[in-house]
Structure formats: C-alpha cells, structure tokens
Amino acid sequence: MQFTSFDFLVFFPIVVLLFYVMPKRFRQLWLLLASYYFYMGWNAKYALLILISTVITYLCGIFTVRIDGECKRKRLFILIASLVINFGILVFYKYFYFLHDTIAAVLSVFGIKLGASRLDIILPVGISFYTFQAVGYTIDVYRGTVKAEKNFIRYALFVSFFPQLVAGPIERSDHLLGQIETIAHKKMWDFDKVTRGLLMMLWGFFMKMVIADRAAVLVDQVFAIYYMFGGVALTLAIVLFAVQIYCDFASYSVIALGAAKVLGIELMINFEAPFFSRSIREFWGRWHVSLSSWFRDYLYIPLGGNRCSTPRKYFNTMLTFAVSGLWHGASWHYVAWGAIQGIYIIIGDILRPLKTRFQDFFQVRVKAFGYQFFQGLCTFFLFVLSLVFFRADTVKDALYYLYRMFMTFDVWSLFDESIYYLGLDRKEMSVMWLGVLILLLVDAYYVRKKALFDTLVKEQPLAVQYVIVAALLVMIIVFGVYGEGYNAAQFIYFQF
Amino acid sequence: MKKKKYFRVAAVTVFFLWIGLVLAAANEIVCAKFIGDSTTIVDGFYAEKKNDIDVVVVGSSNSFCTVNPLVLYEEYGIAAYDFGSSSQPMNISELYIKEVLKRQKPKVIALEINMMVGDSIHNGSEAGLRWGYTNIPLSVDKLKCIYQSVGKLDAEYFSYVFPIFRYHNRWKELSKTDYTYFGKDKTNYTKGYLETQSVAEYAINMSDYGYEGETWIGEDNIVCLDEIVQLCQKNNVELLLFKSPKENWHKYETKAIRALADERGLLFIDYNELYDNGELEFDVAADFRDGDHLNDFGAKKVTMHFGDYLKANYELTDRRADSALNSWDRACDYKRRGEWQDFMAAAKAEECFRQLLEDENLVIIVTRTGSEKDSRVQQWVYQNRKMTLHVQWEDNGIHHMKIGKSELVLSKLGDVYQTLIDGVEYYQPESKWNIVVYDKITKSVTANLVFDE
To answer: Does the distance separating the beta carbons of B32 and A495 come in below 8 Å?
Structure first.
C-alpha cells in the first residue's frame, strides 16, 4: 500500500496501537507480519521474492560466520553466491526487457533478428531497495563489520521493515538490526519521539501531496508533448520536475523516517537539503544519501575509490554513477543521467586548480553570501539540465528537449500568461510556489542547524506548534492533490 | 513528574480540540453549498424551534417542489416543513425521518415516493448522495446509512463522513458565500420549499399515465419503507405517501405503490391519478418548471388539495391561532416583504413616504436632489418610524450609521453624493426625490424609488 492511501491511514494507527499495547516479545513478529501485509497490498505474490531474498541472505550470513577463519575462499564463494542470486532476481525482474532490447539492438547490427519476449514481467515494487539492503548486510557480514543475525524473525524484519521497504532509506545492518533487537525488551514509548515522528510524517505528506503531486501535473503535461512547447515552458517544466522528484523521493523517506520514529526506531536521514549544495559533489553527499553511501561503500571503494591513479579514479566515478543511473531505471537515458553526474564531478575535479587560481587572482570572497548563492544556483542549474535525461523517454528525446529549451527560449512568454495554461493555473501555481517557499525555509533550517522539521516545530512555543500543525494539516487536506477533481457541473443538476 | 503528566494530558486535549475546530471550519468553508437545495433545506430544518413542526414532507426534489408550506399555513394554518434533498434515495429518506424524530414531534410525515421505484439505494448518483449527506450532522444513523449507500469502509465512505475530502478541490472557486455562510442566520423562510416561477419550455405530457407496463421496486427500498413505517408507529406519527405530478409516471407504478401502501395500512395520494381522472386540474403549459417538477403555480394547486386532504384526514391544529407570532408568520411576512408592495405604486414621494413610515422594520433613506433655486442636497434617514438623521450638505464629508445588520454611509465629495449600503451605491440623482428602502427583516434593500414631486 502507498503512504498516501486511505489503507495506510487505517493500517498505520492499528499497527502502532497494537505495537505499544502487546507484550514486548511479540513486537518483532507483529511488525514483520505488518510489513508483509503492507507489501502484499501491492502484489501478494511478490512478497515471496522478499522472502527468498531474506532466506538467502540470512543463510549466507549464518554460513559465513560458521566457516569464519576456516577457509577464505568458501566465505567468498558464499558471498558471490548471495550476490549472484540476489542481483540475478533483481536483473530478471527489473532489467530483463532492457537487456533483451539492448542485445536485440546489438544483434540487429549484425543482421540477426531477436524475437520479441513472450514474458510478462511486472516490476516488483521496492525490489531495488530491499535487495540492496539485504546484499549490503551480506557484504558487511563477509567483511566482519557486523555479526550475522541468528534470529530469523529479527532479520526478516530488517529486510522488510515496512516504513522503508519500498522507497528507502536503504538502511545499514549495523544501524537498524541493533534497534530491531531492542524492541523486544526495551520500553519503546516515548511521547516526544512519537510526536516528532508524527510531525515528520505530516511534513512528508505536505511535500508529497501539496508540492510533488502538484508539480507533476505540469511536468507530465509538458513532457508528454514537449515538442510543442517553447523554451520557457520547457525550462519551467524541468525546474518543476527537479522540485517534483526531490519532494517525491524525499517525502517518502521523511514519511518512512517519521513512521519508524513513531515506532521508536531511528532511520537515517536520506535527503539533507540537496538544493543548498554548492557543487555537484556536495549535492551527491546530500541527495539520496543512503543510496549514494551504499554505492560508495560497496562499489566505489572496492573498485579502488580515490586511492588509485587519476584515470582509474575517474573510471571508478563514471562507473559508479552510471550504475547508480541504471539503479534508478532500466533504460539508457537513466544511464546517461548517471554518467552526466560522473562527468560533472570529473570536470569539477579537473577545473579545481583553475578555479582556485581564479579565486586567488580576483580575490573572490568565497564565504560571501552572493558568491555562495551563485555557486548554489550553478549547481542547481547543472542538476536540472541533467534531469532532462532522467525524465525524457529516450536519450534522443532528452537531446531534442534541451535543443528546444535553448533554441526557442522566448523570455516574453513569461509575461503573457501562457505559463498558466501548462496544467497549473494561476492559483495552482501560487500554491505550488508557496509550498516551495516553505520547503526552502525548512531546508534552510536544516543547513543552519542540521536538524529536521520536527526540531524546527518543537523549538517553537506550544501555541505556535499548534498553529503550524493546523496550518499544514489544512494545506494538505485542502490543497493536496488527491481524490477526484471537483467538477461543479456534476452537481449543477441540483434542485431537480 | 505528576505535574508534567497533567500538563501533557491538558496539552494533548487542547491540541485535539484545536485541530478539530480548525478542520471543522475548513470543512464548512470548502464544502459545496447547495443553496435552495439540501444545504439551506437541511440547515433551515435544524434552525427550526424544537417540537414546533406539525407536518414534515420528506423525499427527493419532487417533494420540495410540490408542497409549499407557506401556502399550507396561509390557507389552512398547517405548520409544515419540506425536509428533502435532490435525487434522495430511500435510505436517505429514512435517515431524514430519523433526524426529524430526534428534533420534532410531527403529527404527520408525508413521504414523496418518486424514489421507491427501482433501486435508488444502490443505483443512485454520487450527486444524490452528496446532496443528501453533506449537511446532515454526524451520527451513528448517518454512518450506518452511508455504509448502506457505499457498501464498504473505504476512502469513498470516509469522504461522505468528512466531506472536506471530496470537496477540497473547490478551494480554487470559493466565493464570499463559502466564507460567510456558516456565520449566517440559517432560517429557511420558504420552509424548505423551492420557489420558482419559471415555466417549462414545452407543454408537459401527462397523457401517458395510462400506458401499460410493469415496474420493479427494489427489495431494499421496501425494507426502508417498512422501517419508516415502524419508526412512525413507534413515535406515534401518521405516515402519508404521495406522488407529485410528473411526466412519465404511470398507472402501473401507482398500482405497485398502492399495493405496498395498502398492505401497510397507509394512505397514498397520487396527483397524476387525480389529474388523470379530472379531480385536479393543471395547466400543462404553465404549471411545470420541467417534466419532473412543478413551479409555484402548479405547486399552489397541489398544495391546496394537499391541505384539504390533511385537514380531512388528520387532526391538525390551526397554528394561525397561536397567541404569539410563530416562525410561519415570520416566514409569510418575509415572503410578503420580497413581493410587490403598495408603496411601490405611489405617484408622489410624500404618498410613498407616508406608507413606508407605517412599517417600523423599514429604514427609509430619502434624498432631495438640489434644484436651481437651492442647489444643496438634503438627506433624511428614518429608523423605527423616527427621523434619526437629517443632513443638508454644504461641505465635503460623510455620515455613517448601522441600519439593521448593514452599514449605511452618506457622503459628499465635491459634486458627487453617495448613498452606500454595505458598500453598494444606491443614490439616483436624476430625479428630485430618491427613496431607498432597507428592510431589517429581509436584511436587504427592497426598493430604490425616484419621484419628480
């Protein structure tokens, strides 16, 4: 089920209520059952895939520990077996068509025709998230950085914990497993923590329903027929797509974080005000942190990371980002999007000495607000440009989109009201920008205090806290994009 | 520690009260207002004095477009109220009757049975449900009834319980009424009846009544009827069934309903039948608003017959004999004030003024425009039959005062004179005399007259 569904509105309070009233020893099992029920709300059959992944990685962990010190090759074999099976499932369900089409395209160059696939594969929701989490655990056990979990229920809950099951954050075993262990014997109820969790959930719903889903209306409309629009519309659409994708991704993480907090469990912060970054490298340290750090720890560093020759380092960067792109979606335009991030970082690296000399020569005050704002703007602009590759259907579409964006940019169309005919009228647009303004304030607070929305609210006097909650709640309910649209004409036939 | 605990309990309680209040206000503002239909009918019903109504008419729009309670009162002294909503399924009619019995002790409940035919409960339109449910207060009966309509506990069900979730997208089209409605006096001066004098563009065809055919009445509709019968019996209320005149109603449908009524010992009047056998005459070209609904002319004819029938079959007190003014007296007065009145026909300002002065509920604003001899403009304001202001304008300036619930401003700025009531300009300088009449009862300007002498 989705966080923004009616089912979740019923499901979550029941889970929380029973969690706190039942004997402690049943809590892990209860959350496990709840997590599987949550997942099965999408596709009951695919819960089996989580179970398979859980059993394999659980057994790998147990066997790895058992043969600890006996034979390094055996342990490596177990690790590789776990990786092959888990990634095998992921590749089959997520990348089958992508691989099929790519191979078919390559073969067609040699005149060989590959028939269309007869398989009908539905992508299991959240497979990329829980696979990475389970695989991360196996690697940690292999490395000896965490102990293998012997309790299957506890481990199964670690893989399937419902708040972060389908959209992250991708948790680390050393962070989450220990917390799961404590819920069976520790007093979990903490009024402050629960209210903070609820505040985070409220903020997540605001981001998702008021901002992300509203921006999506314009973005979807423009991207569907982008070739009919001029530069201003295309720029607006891609800027709003940046807002949409951030609020969409981040809101799920924030709701997950809040929901877990209500249950007394702390999840990692996944988005750390990324639009306040002043370089692409910094951006990737703030954007989808759990994924970026996963790739850093389990791919980039094993490849050699920074401690190798410059060309090799650049290769590692490019490969990591290309794979990261592919993780986001099974298509070449995602790979291109990832690769662009790598290119940005490499160019940034190459130009760094030049930039330093420039700053020295012109005595640029690098700590001045104006300069830092300019850096932030440039970073945002570069990221937005790359997003065209993320959102477009193909690389070809992305290139033409960018071409039109720059070549047909008519600044006057900003003032002729035409932007209000792209899916969001003037009132909708006002709410959109109001939402973005609130978002920027909350993110600015994070940058200044390294604290999230819950702390921002809790710092206020009680009366102000109540006003903030009421205002946010009303905005979500009234301005939220959900349910059927209201069509007065449908109700015109009254009095009859 | 204990103190902290008490504080926390108090803080949480205050929080939930506050959130409840805010959401209730948001709900009131955002919900669609079906003015003239269920919103004002339902709110008007709850604004009625408890245990004051003798006859309640329940049903779909056929009910509140047919029986005019003010005619019933003026002609028969019957205190009635039309408590219906458009396209009202039978289970909502039952809910409305339950609501009636919670607040009133009527002698008769008249149920318009248009929605008995077919399966109104499960095949009703969303609009019909919205009209029916939106303004009814939350209760266990309402929750059960919604469940019967929706059939499951899901988001749709939830949206009937808390209609803000359905109407939230109205935020873009909110008008002043949406913000001010909940603070307004909810008295329904037509007693639920929908006034209209519009006439159908074509002559209504009532001649198909005799066509042969078969009808089907849904099981659940019959169950609802039985429950309504039991409710009425339990509360010692007489239940009367009736069918308003309309196109495409047939004898076989009447026969089916009559069979149900007879089985349950209920009285049933079919106005289509009465028209068909010549007992009641309609002008099919003038008495209908459309094929399904009467206008004021047709409703008066039916209501007169309905009044005779009620008087003949039930013991209903003539409420015109009440010692004090009752709400039907006030409603009739309200209606009269909105209609043509004798003072409007006066030829001279003085004659008009004298007639107006007889009514203490009128505020009279008289302006004498300057002439060649005396260019000064003079203004008088009369309230409670007394002059409360006289201005002989020489310099620029303003005078303002409260008249009823409105704000009156008289002003002069250079050669421009204004008579503003709630910011709306009424002054007509073309003639020598201008009389603006503000009615404190209807809280509106009822006339803006000019006279040369």
So the answer is: no
Report CA-CA distances (Å) from B291 to A43, B27, B241, B295: 51, 35, 21, 11
Query: Is the separation of the CB atoms in B149 and B89 below 8 Å?
Result: yes
Beta-bridge partners for B55? B80, B108
CA distances from A15 to A21, A204, B278, B320 (A): 10, 19, 68, 62
* B74: CB partners within 8 A, 6+ apart: B332
Which residue among B18, B131, B169 sits closest to A470, beta carbon to beta carbon?
B18
The verdict on A189 touching B (C-beta cutoff 8 Å) is no
Q: Is A100 a catalytic residue?
A: no
How many Cβ pairs closer than 8 A exist between chain A and B? 86
User: What are B42-62's pLDDT values in tens digits?
Assistant: 999 999 999 999 999 999 999
Q: What is the DSSP string of A114-176?
A: PPPP---PPPPTTHHHHHHHHHHHHHHHHHTSSPPP--HHHHHHHHH-GGGTTT-----HHHH
CB A333 within 8 A of CB A390: yes
Neighbour-count burial of A331, counting CB atoms closer than 10 A to its CB (0-12 exposed, 13-18 middle, 19+ buried): buried
Asked if residue A299 has pLDDT above 50, the reply is yes
Q: Which residues, 6+ apart, have CB-to-CB distance to B365 below 8 Å?
A: B379, B380, B381, B382, B408, B410, B419, B426, B435, B436, B437, B438
Q: Give the one of A479, A482, A494 whose C-beta lies nearest to B171's C-beta.
A: A479
Chain A interface includes B46 (CB < 8 A): no
> Of the candidates B226, B223, B213, which has an alpha carbon nearest to the alpha carbon of residue B256?
B213
The closest of B336, B332, B296 to B74, measured between CA atoms, is B332
- Record the tokens describing residue B57, joined without a space: 């008419």
Contacts of A50 (CB under 8 A, 6+ apart): A36, A39, A130, A159, A160, A165
Q: How many CB atoms lie within 10 A of CB B222?
A: 15
Chain B CB within 8 Å of residue A496 CB: yes
User: Which positions in chain B touch A469 (Cβ < 8 Å)?
Assistant: 15, 19
Q: Chain centroid to CA B53: how far?
A: 15
CA dihedral in degrees (B399, B404, B406, B410; nearest 10)?
Answer: -20
Q: In chain A, whose CA is at the least distance from the CA of B15? A: A466
Q: In the 8-state DSSP scheme, what is residue A485?
A: P
Q: Which of A5, A469, A477 sits opposite B168 (nearest CB)?
A: A477
Q: Residue A432 region, left (φ>0) first, then alpha (ψ -120 to 50), else beta? A: alpha
Beta bridge partners of A445: none
Report the chain B residue with the minimal C-alpha distance to residue A491: B127
- Distance from the Cα of B131 to chain A's closest Cα (Å) equals 8
- Cβ–Cβ below 8 Å for B168 and A480: yes
Tens-digit pLDDT profile for residues B66-118: 999 999 999 999 999 999 999 899 999 999 999 999 999 999 999 999 998 88
Q: Does A8 touch chain B (CB under 8 A)?
A: no
**Catalytic residue, candidates A100, A288, A328, A333:** A328
Q: Which amino acid is at A374?
A: F
A225/B contact by beta carbon, under 8 A: no
Paired tokens of A162:
């419902």
Q: Do B26 and A491 touch (CB under 8 A)?
A: no
Interface predicted TM-score (ipTM) over 0.90: no
